[in-house]
Each structure stands twice: as C-alpha cells, then as structure tokens.
Amino acid sequence: MFTGIIEGVGRLAARAPRGGDMRLAIEVGSLPFADVRAGESIAVNGVCLTVVAFDARAFQADASTETLALTTLGALAEGAPLNLERAMRPDDRLGGHLVSGHVDGVGRVQSVAPDARAQRWRFSAPAQVLRYVAKKGSICVDGVSLTVNAVDDAGFEVALIPHTVANTAFASTAVGDAVNLEVDLVARYVERLLHAP
C-alpha cells in the first residue's frame, strides 16, 4: 500500500526486453533509499513494482505484459522523470489516501492553467475510470494523491500547489502527455458490495 505522497523523483535509466516482458532500471534520484531490500514494493508513476535488484543509486524491476499494456510504463522514453514512493509502513502517517499501485486506466493532460499561485490541471479519463471519480474525492495521477475539484463526462480537474509541481514529475509533464490513473479504493469496494449477488 502507498499514500500518494511522492518521496522522490527519479528517472528511467534503461529498459531491457526479457522473454516477452521487460526489466526496467530506475535511478532513484531523491528517493530515500538506504535501507531498500529485494522484494519490496516501490510505486513508479503510480505503478506498484517489485525490486528485484539494486545498488546505491538505482533498482531494477520487472514489468509484466499486463503492466506494459495498461499503464504508461511501456511507452516512456529512457531518461523520463518518474514519481517514486516506497510502500507505507503500518506506523506511517497517511498524508494522502490509500493507494494500491494498481492502475485503473490511462488518461491525458488536457490543459494546464494558472490559478493564483497554484495550477489548475485538467485530465481526460476513460469512462470506466470516470464512473468512480467524485468532486472533492481522491484520485491518484502518476502516483500523486490529488483532490478532484471538478468532474464531467470527459474528464476531471485538480489543483496543483507549487510544492507539488516542484517536487514531482509534474514539473516535466506537458499537455498531451499520458498519465496513470488510480481511483479511490473505497469506490471500487462499494460498487462491488452494491452489485454482489
């Protein structure tokens, strides 16, 4: 589990095809990394990946064909900045919201506009994702926990404060870029309970 509070920005150092899927090498940049262990989970642009090898400045993770097909990771260029968050511990503060690292769909940045010192970002999203998005609810965009300011049939809007832009990969994200989307966990479980036989 994660919180959607980004701990560091790294970059995609390399990708290597492996038997139909891919091994990613990710430089950790500013992510606190001294006590990393093989087998632990790290959210990479909101995608939960397992550390399979590491050194002092990078880790490697395998991305399955499912992950490559349903997230932005398969299309990212080497050198792309990445939002990174290590899995939360039971005694951590929950500063964002509960995030699983299981991406529900891919959206796109539609617009970015100044809003006082903040920025108002609008994202498109697939209909199967938008059904779970609610005004003033939470959504995870490329691993970042955000509050929804507005939602309609085509997408949703959020406000990014200067701190968020400066300390995440949003500093390098532009209109037209694809982003990973994960809806609030609670919404999925409520729907399942309401439609259970």
List the SSEs and their pairings.
Layout: E1 8-18, E2 21-27, E3 41-44, E4 47-54, E5 58-63, H1 65-70, E6 81-86, E7 105-115, E8 118-124, H2 127-130, E9 138-141, E10 144-151, E11 155-160, H3 162-166, E12 178-183, H4 185-194
GO molecular function, one term: riboflavin synthase activity
Domain Lumazine-binding: 1-97, 98-194
Pathway: Cofactor biosynthesis; riboflavin biosynthesis; riboflavin from 2-hydroxy-3-oxobutyl phosphate and 5-amino-6-(D-ribitylamino)uracil: step 2/2
Explain this structure to me?
The chain has 197 residues and is mainly beta. The chain has two domains: 8-86, Elongation Factor Tu (Ef-tu), domain 3; 105-194, Elongation Factor Tu (Ef-tu), domain 3, CATH 2.40.30.20. It has helices at residues 65-70, 127-130, 162-166, 185-194; strands at 8-18, 21-27, 41-44, 47-54, 58-63, 81-86, 105-115, 118-124, 138-141, 144-151, 155-160, 178-183. A six-stranded antiparallel beta barrel has the order 1-2-5-4-3-6. A six-stranded antiparallel beta barrel has the order 7-8-11-10-9-12. A hairpin with a 3-residue loop joins strand 4 and strand 5 (58-63). The model has no long low-confidence stretch (mean pLDDT 94).
